[in-house]
Amino acid sequence: METKPVWTCACGQENKGKFCIACGKPRPAAASPDVTFRRMCLMFALCALGIVAVLGWSAASALTAEPLSVAEDRTRQEAGLPPLPEGPSSSGTKAPAQAAPAAPAAAPAQNNGAAAQTNGTSAAALQGYYKDLTNRKWQSAYARLSPAMQQHMGAYDTFAKGYETTLSATADNLRVISADKTQETLTYQLTSRDRAANGKVKVQRFTGQATLQPSANGTWKITDMNVKKQSESWE
């Protein structure tokens, strides 16, 4: 027994016969393969024509449109500015503007070591330390020491008390034995004269070595100091 295909009417009713049992509309005829093929060919032809039309319009626009460089020149002329320089390309595209040549770099400053960047020399600073002791300017002498050296020598009151009997302290024959951009080391001869309890003057001679470093404000600070006694006499 042949089973009739089921079809759905526009009203939503499923049917097997030639007419809808709900609204009475006839069953729609199935499109033949030939009609379907013709419809596909027609749609393909319409699409191809549309693509050709779009491509043709784009090509025409590219040929008739004003080059960007020409438009830029016209805008600059209307604003009273000179036209952009022509580039080497023949396509009409502007070459990028060349930057102005950079100014030549300044010659680096000559650096003659730490002494060239400080106030005076390390030798003068060391002699100044002993002159302050001679003149009993203990606070000035204490300020010539680096913070680490001050801590090593003790508090200021202790430091000053240690030089209460000093009559003079003189540094001679100073000689730089090593130097770089951060510090200098010197050797020297030190002669000190101190008042003794018996009223006499005790004269002592030392060989010394000191290291100094430039501080942030350009003054030399004593960071290390060692002296070795060579002789002693009385006056």
Task: Please characterize this protein's 3D structure.
The protein is of the alpha+beta class and 235 residues long. 32% of the residues lie in helices and 25% in strands. The strands form 2 sheets. A 4-stranded antiparallel β-sheet has the order 3-4-5-6, covered by helices on one side. A two-stranded antiparallel ribbon has the order 1-2. 10% of the residues are buried. Mean pLDDT is 79; it is low at 88-94 and 106-116.
Estimate the helix proportion, in percent.
25-40%
Q: Rg from C-alpha positions?
A: 52 Å
- Strand element count: 6
Give the strand order, joined by hyphens, for the main sheet: 3-4-5-6
- Contiguous runs where pLDDT drops below 50 for at least 5 residues: 88-94, 106-116
Number of helices: 6
What structural class should be given to the helix and strand makeup?
alpha+beta
Strand content: 25-35%
- Mean of residue pLDDT values: 79
Note the overall shape. rod-shaped
Which sequence of SSEs, written as H and E, runs from N to C? Answer: EEHHHHHHEEEE
N/C terminus separation:
153 Å
Main sheet summary? 4 strands, antiparallel
